[in-house]
Amino acid sequence: MSTTVAYNAKALHIPDHFMPRLRVKRYLLTGLLTFIPLWVTWLVFKFVLGMLAGIGAPLVAALLNGLALVAPHTAESLKMEWLVFIVALVITLGALYLLGFVANRVIGQRFINAFDGLLARIPLVQTIYGGTKKLMAVLQNKPSGVQRVVLVDFPRRGMKVVGFVTRVMIEEGSGREMAAVYIPTTPNPTGGYLEVVPLDELTPTDWTMDQAMAFIISGGAVAPDTLPASPALPRRDETGNPA
């Protein structure tokens, strides 16, 4: 390696006193490129784990307050930030596992249906809860006759983003099939945009949900070598009907 560097330096007529400076820049750049994926991974995990720990944090605080009434010195010694974080995370994960276990049983399904019926009577809560639950259910099941993961022209024609088809509707008057497409953002896919796009203007893909999420979170670094070709867009008149 050093022989090659020296040869390249002579071929480019680089003075010897510049070589240490070039090595420092090269090593810094290599270190930065090695660190960035680790940093992004840590940010994603920190966000997810912090959100999960935040759910169980109030319960841990209540347990510590109850312990303080019996053994104040023990409770004070346990009030360490990292310990509270771990205990809250374990409690949340355990609760989620238990919830999933119960939801897969007949009794649990009846309880959830009764709970859904109760929330359905609260207008504002039903709008948020019901809409979110339907979105989660839609993303788990492929719509009939339509590929789930698509490419969409956004924010203008010629620029493509990855989107998830959540619903297909019929436009009144023209009879066109319109797709509701959720467009997540990078690297946090929990935020995004919703577009209603004519079905014939979508570019279908053979990607799975896991492949699409890996593509979005990695900023496009984890991606296939080829992309599907965009369909030939039909010409339309001023009313939006085929010309």
Automatic annotation (TrEMBL):
Q: Which domain of life is it from?
A: Bacteria
The transmembrane segments are 27-45, 51-70, 82-103
Any keyword Transmembrane?
Answer: yes
Q: Does the keyword Membrane apply?
A: yes
InterPro entries in the cross-refs: COV1-like (IPR007462)
Q: Which UniProt keywords apply?
A: Membrane, Transmembrane, Transmembrane helix
Please give the Pfam families that the UniProt record associates with this protein. DUF502 (PF04367)
Q: What is this protein called?
A: Membrane protein
Question: Which organism encodes this protein?
Answer: Rhodanobacter soli
